[in-house]
Structure to design on (74 residues):
């Protein structure tokens, strides 16, 4: 399991050809400095995650998982 969104994004960048944080920032319409600040604070809006997913040629899925069963609630 991943500890936070920042770690997950970093792993996805590596898996997508070792894309740099600056390149991902440009593909999402942000400055590298702004992206870096969000990474440091681990503060991403859902709309930003959607742009990141698009830049990574991926689909964003968010779900709540039951802690007891490990299954999605819905």
């Amino acid at each position: 399991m991943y500890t936070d969104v920042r770690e997950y994004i970093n792993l996805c960048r590596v898996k997508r050809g070792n894309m740099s944080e600056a390149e991902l920032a440009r593909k999402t319409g942000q400055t590298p400095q702004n992206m870096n600040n969000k990474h440091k604070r681990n503060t991403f809006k859902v709309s930003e995650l959607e742009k990141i997913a698009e830049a990574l040629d991926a689909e964003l899925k968010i779900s709540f998982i039951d802690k007891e069963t490990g299954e999605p609630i819905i």
Summary: The mean pLDDT is 92.
